[in-house]
Each structure stands twice: as C-alpha cells, then as structure tokens.
Amino acid sequence: MRDRYKLYLLYSVLSKNRIVVFGGVLIGVLTLLALFAPLVAPFDPLDISIKDALLAPSRTHIFGTDHLGRDLFSRIIFGARISLSIGFVAVGVSVLIGLVVGSVAGYYGRRVDTVLMRLVDIMLCFPSFFLILAVVAMLESSIINIMVVIGITSWMGVARLIRAEILSLKEREFILASRAVGASDFRIIVRHLMPNAIAPVLVSAVLGVAAAVLLESSLSFLGLGVQPPTPSWGNILMEGKASLGVCWWLMFFPGVFILMTVLGYNLLGEGLREYFNPRKRI
Amino acid sequence: MLLGISIISFCVIHLAPGSPVDSVTTLNPKVSFEAREKLIAQYGLDKPLAIQYLSWLRRLATFDFGVSYSDGQRVINKIVARVPITFLINILSLFFILLIAIPIGITSAVREGSFYDRSMTIFVFIGFAMPGFWLALMFMSFFGITLGWLPVQGIISLGFDRLSLLGKILDIGKHLILPVIVSSFGSLAAMSRYMRNNMLEVLHKDYIQTARAKGLSENSVIYKHALKNAILPIITILGLSVPGLIGGSVIVESIFGIPGMGRLFYESVMGRDYPVIMAVLVIGALLTLLGNLLADISYSLADPRIRYER
Known about the structure:
The complex is a heterodimer of chains A (about 280) and B (about 300). By secondary structure, chain A is an all-alpha fold.
C-alpha cells in the first residue's frame, strides 16, 4: 500500500514537472554514452592523424576534429567517462566526510559541536576555488587527487544539513528508546538517525555532482586538472582555445556537454527537493 | 576564526610536496647543491613547520606577507597593485546582478506560472548550469572576433596614455563589459530565482491580503508592501556570494588577461610562490568575512525587527 502511494506520488510529481523528467533523460543519455563509450565512439579518442586536423563537422566526424586530427565526438564521449566519474567520486567523498562530521557534531553536541562547526565556518570562508586551485597545483594533478580535493573542499553543506537534522531528531522518543535498550552510539547514529536525514543529503548530493563536474572542467581548463592526452571536457576546451574564433566546433560541443550535464543534475536535484518537501505531501 | 583561516592556509600550502626551491633550481641546472641549501636556509624552509608558521604569523600581524619567491618583490605591494581592478569588476558585477535579478524576480513572481515566468525559469536553470569559462570563450569569439565589437584581452588598449581622461574611462569600460557580464552571469540566475521565491512567499502572507482588502492598488501592494519584505534576505545572499565572485575572478581574469588578484593567484600557483599564495588565500578569506559582516550590519540597519543585543 505504502509503496503504491509512493509510486503514485512519484508519478504525480513527475507528470507535473516535465522539466525534471527532461533532466533525468539528459542524465540518462549522457551516462549511457559514457558507459558504452568504446561501443559508441566511432574513432579512438587518442588516435592522432595530422592530415585530418581541424576538419569541420561532417558525416564521418560529426563534431569535427581537433588540431591533432582526433575525432572530437569520440573525445567528448570518452571525456564524459572521466568528467562524470570525477563528479561522482568527488561527491561520494564530500558526502562521506559531511555525514561523519555532521552526525558527530549533532549527536555529541557541546564542545565537539562547537569545534567541528567552527571548522565548517572557517572552511566556508575561503573562496573555495582558490583553495582547490592551491591544493591541486601543489599535488600532482592526477584524476584521483582531483576527486579527493574537490571532495574535501565541498563537504560543509552536507555536514550542516546532517547536523541540523540530527539535532532535531535526537531528542525524539525512538532515539531515547533505542538508548534505553542499550544500543551503541554508532548504532544509533548509523541505523536510526542517518536514514531519517537522508533525503536532504540526497538532494544536495545530486546538486553536488553538477557542481563537481563544473569544478573539474574549470580546473582542467586552467591546465590544473586532468592532463592531456586523457580527454576530459575541460581540457578539450583548453586545447580548443588555441583555435578560438577559427574552429567554432572545438569550443562549442564540449561546452554544450558540460552545460547539459550540469543542467540535468540541477533539474533532477530540484525535482527531488520538491518530492521530499514535506509541506507538499498532503 | 582568523587564526583558523591562517593555520589552514599555511598547512595546505606547506604540507604539499614540491618546494619553491625546485622551481628555481630545475630551470637552472647549474645551481649547485650548496646554493640550493643556501636558498632553503634563506627562505627558512629548513626550520620546523610550527616555527615557520609562527614567524609568518608575526609578520602577518603587520601586513608583512614577506617577499615573493619569483621576483623578489614585496608580496603586499604586488597584491595592492592588483586588487583595485578585481574589486572594480566584482563591484560592477554585484551592481549588475542586483539591477537585473531583482526586477526579473519580482515580475516573474507576480506573474507566477505565466509564459514569461516559465521562460525565465528555463533561463535561470541554463544560467545556473553555464560554465563561466565557456561563456567567456563564446562571448570572446562572437563579440570580440566575429563581430569585432569589443576588445578581448587586457584592460587597456595600446596607446592608452595618449587618450583624454574621458577616453581612458571609456576604454577601460569597453574592456570590462565582457568580464563583468561573464562574472555576474551565474549569480544573476541564482539571485533572480531567489528573489522570485522570496516574493512568492511574501505575496501569500496575510498582510498582503489585508493590503489588497484595504483597496490599495496592485502596484502599491507589490512595490510598497511586498517588495520591502522580499528584498531583505537578498542582502544576506549578496554577502554569501562574495567568495564565489572572488574565486570566479581567477577564471575570468586569466581568460581575459586582466592583471587582477585572480590572475596573480593563478600565476603564483603555477610558480609555487608560497608567500603570494598564502597572502591571497588569507586576504580572500578576510574579504569574505568582511562581506558577511557588512551583510549582517546592513541587514540590521534595513530591518528594524532585527537588532543585535548589546
């Protein structure tokens, strides 16, 4: 019964929000393209053939070719793998840190709370792009490093969300009850508090993927992210910058893909927010 | 708070592998081992981190950020030379954001669900998703190269010195159009969305119904009663958007070749110029704090219901 109600709710939210469906479809298509990149891509993304350099879009090269004659469409599809996985892992890292910090702060309160939340305030003070840029430049700019760095500079929102939820939950009877039967703190936090706080976290994680994809592309564009020849949307743009104003396709298509991805995740995130909003659930 | 900021920026920079001495020595293989050691000692890099931090902090208190590793100039001079242009761009962007976002927010809230409102919603989502650097490149190639209307690099033209005062202002203005548009685009979308939601919330309040029931004209209801209440939270958001704007200036300034703080930061990151990186990080964080403080103060000035206890 409850499942059916949920399905109905989902359906009614979806049919009212065609924009959200559009977002979901965008994400779906892009994810599929990335997953099946080797099957979809007509050429090897690393295959250089100078005689085909800077060809305009045509039937063989639907997005044209870059300055080394590599097929742009294939590069973008393979770049999607890199860019999307950086987005996912970075968000995973940030949600993990946020969950731990937020629930510890919210559950234990007092000193622990003050110290951890002060840390959050301090982290929020830094123009995050400055901080990321500094760290990425210091470390070697490998894909793993970028994922971790984006993650550890963007967990503050999740931490605050979780803390607020737990603060309001921990005085409720069911927590008292589980404490009375002798559940450990860890068990109470993980089994009883977190599941109740998961909705807002899910929303912010979905929105976070969008932000992380944007960040990664900005970093790679500045030459501090994924290093060529491995294609990512940002460094395809960076390489295309040299032919600005001459070969429009080199700039246009990668940007459109970034735009579509970010748009898709933002729309989905907004839709989920609406779905979880208790005030609309009557 | 300030201490925390300085500790974090110091740790971040110093725990990372790679030293500035490398960038000096690898470029020049003739530098001997002794010279290398001497350089390390000169910069104090051989001392324990805590000592390095304390001596950095002591100098920080007097705004002495040390000397740049790359060219031996005083860091504070380098930064002061770069700040005005970044400041100018960000102030102009904020102004531009308010000027456009607030009317968009109001009008789409008033006509909720209309075609106009829905197209604005779409615009907002696209604006939100737009990668700033991509927009910059698109504008550059369209307005700068294809149409040739606007300059795409730097902030002044060749022969700037020969221009009259008015000519100089116009010249800088022309160079700033694209950077300002690009740096305000994302926040513009967010802000107009925010304004719309505020306005919607206020419009559903009882006192608006009262105002209508009194027989006030619709204009007076919207612009006098609703607007005042809806616009207040915008102040806070403006304060919060400061770090984003400052961070965004790295991208905007490096694309448009503007010699501001963002570009300075980019250059020093590339050259591992610790003193400059730390100074910019600290100053960026300070500016953010300042932005929040200003927002709080103006909020309490604007809203008589909120007064801080003495």
